Amino acid sequence: MGDRPMTTGASKISFGTDYGCCFVDLGKTRIMAQVSCELITPKENRPNEGLIFFNIELSPMASPAFEMGRQSELLVKLNRQLERCLRNSKCIDTESLCVVSGEKVWQIRVDVHLLNHDGNLMDAASIAAIAGLCHFRRPDVGIQGEEVTVYSTEERDPIPLSIYHMPICVSFSFFQQGTYLLVDPCEREERVMDGLLMIAMNKHREICSIQSSGGIMLLKDQVLRCSKIASVKVSEITELINKALENDKKARKTGGKFGFAESLPQERITALKTDVSHVEMSDVKEKANEIVQRAEVPPQTVPCPVLTAPGTGQVGEGLENSWGLEEEEEEEDETVELKMELEEGHEEKGKGDVVVISDSDSEEEDVVILNQVTTKEKASSSNQQGAVASKQQQKKKKKKKRGQ
Amino acid sequence: MAKYLMTLPTFRKQVSLSPSLSALDGKDLVVPGDVITSDTGFMRGHGTYMDEEKLTASVAGEVERVNKLVCVRPLRTRFNGEVGDVVVGRITEVQQKRWKVETNSRLDSVLLLSSVNLPGGELRRRSAEDELTMRDYLQEGDLISAEVQSVFSDGALSLHTRSLKYGKLGQGVLVQLSPSLIKRQKTHFHNLPCGASIILGNNGFVWLYPAPGQQDEEAGGYYTSLEPVSLSDREVISRLRNCLLALGAHKVLLYDTSVLYCYESSLPHQIKDILKPEVMEEIVMVTRQKLVEQEG
After folding, report:
1. What pTM value is reported for the model?
2. Which parts of the sequence belong to the Exoribonuclease phosphorolytic domain (chain A) (predicted)?
3. Dihedral sign for Cα atoms in the order B125, B131, B137, B141
4. What b/e readout covers A208-220, taking b as 16+ CB neighbours within 10 angstroms?
5. pLDDT tens figures, A51-67
6. Which of A21, A213, B107, B148 could form a disulfide with B156 if both were Cys (CB 3.0 to 4.6 A apart)?
């Protein structure tokens, strides 16, 4: 059986400024959970227990396929699953939420908002919900005889909820009748998968909920294998949640900045950023050898400027231009570079004794050297600006023969 | 491990930038956070927000001002449909009496059962039977070309295919680009002289297909011919597709002329070479030059 488990993209958990506000990024899927509490009358058949209420919301912000206000099948499924995973597993001690038996209990409400849909909503929702619940602090309550006082956060520190364990969902998607298995499918993969297996587990390797949808037939060892993978993943994610909680607690204690705005990376240059791409290196050696062999021997002479006359310099012996610039006429054309910072000289071939230098920088039309120079030379320009604009110069001005 | 061919830098032809690019001086480009104006007399429109009495941009784009209303039109955005736009979309859901179509906009567009031409071209009231056989007409995954009939209050588009030129698309290639690159023209259906036809959807989805033969297209476009397409046609379409990707990568406005020029300037290269970055650049440079010459 082919097994190609795929790891998630970068998973990130961050908390907001309020207690109980948690953001989870699983790759591109982004979810926010907010936990709040309220005092209400308990159920009649369970007067000692508090209540937990889950609510997942899918808004068009997450995906163009979601419509506002429509109770879609996916929404019902997610809600039901989250309730089963967190409420039926009894991960939260509901009896500790009781204030006055039969009269007042806390109702904890977990609102989960999907901000971006890139697949695997169940995993992200469960992580966000449980992290939010761990992060949440409810107001402290004092009972004196018949009187019940609820202290505000300023009066007394709020107390965390008592959570026994952290159940986390892990989803597996199957393709081609169970041949291929992917952990944590993204949206595209979810659209084409054959079936989905969802295992909710805690780090003590206790399965809290297991669900198979899509109607595929799974073998026993497939399910066992998935549960093993799930236990590994769950321990990793529990680590991540605990670390995030630690960091947040530390930041709040030391008075440092905490919250959503602080968790965003700042001052990061993203322009012109590309992903790391691999380079084909299998025949690099042969290619390099080929190039070296075909290349010409480098010139033995070291170029050094020769001062032919005061104010002029000559570099090079008139080699062919190797910049690859196009030469329209090849007879005895010279090129004049426009943007140059170094001293350039451009000498026409002189039959006679006199050389006429047309220097583009100089304001004179002709700069005439009275000494005899017979070499023809082309100056090369520096390519600092990267743009070499070359202009062909016609030999309009013939050298004047002037006797010296 | 993915293998990529690394290409060494080669000399590129220097082409002078067209003078029309300097016309951008008239446009005011802003990035998020840029202050547009400190004058409090302006009303703020889309893409702006008030930051301590200063009107600041919240998206990257150009500033548009209509009398007292200042808004920023983003350069890269999802498709915002207007009535009359031609779109190419993919069916994502089949619901009661309507289909949901993905058109690269913020919400999936809606194609009502009453807005399609039934096969056979009959004009009759839609019955319950029609509702049950919706999937026979259009299934999830089908591509259609349609026109925007109206816009719902939440921003979703209502499409219709009540014309012979719209309907289900048959064999061809879809290229997904940014909607900002498609030029608004009188007609978005073109039969290119190189031997293929193109539908430039306003939503950035471009459909390339082999030119229809002698016979007229069937009514409503629900008849999809499954005849094999000849190799030459397929090569033309592949080349066009790569050209479109090249133009899209260099943010060139797409319309029939630019696509055609790009096709012509890509002829000296092999089809698969067009995807190489330096070849792309070269082709797009030549295309831009030709477009400038044509204008001026």
Report:
1. 0.70
2. 14-139, 165-231
3. positive
4. bbbbbeeebeeee
5. 999 999 998 889 888 88
6. B107
